[in-house]
Amino acid sequence: xxxxxAIIFIAELIITATLLFFINKAxxxxxxxxxxxxxxxxxxxxxxxxxxxxxxxxxxxxQQGIDYIIRKKEQYTINVIKNVLMYVLLFSLKGRCKKAxxxxxxxxxxxxxxxxxxxxx
Length: 121
Fold this sequence. Notes:
Layout: H1 2-39, H2 41-96, H3 98-117
């Protein structure tokens, strides 16, 4: 009986010694890592600042892209409204008088030509 208890006690001592060895080894590694971190603190801080600048620049570029898309959407909406009104006018005038319809058709062609050639410049 005492022999069995002694064996268990010795096994516990071996396990405890092994755990203490690994804890001591991990402590040394953490101390080395801490020392390296302290030595490279300035590099880390500069890297974080640079990364922050990159994030701010990316945010500004994305905001500019969103603003550009919103402007183009508004321009597209205005052009669609103009074209719909122009063709409604053409359709309504085409039935009443042919000369007015041909004049409106010429105006529409001139407007389309102007939009294609000079509006994007």
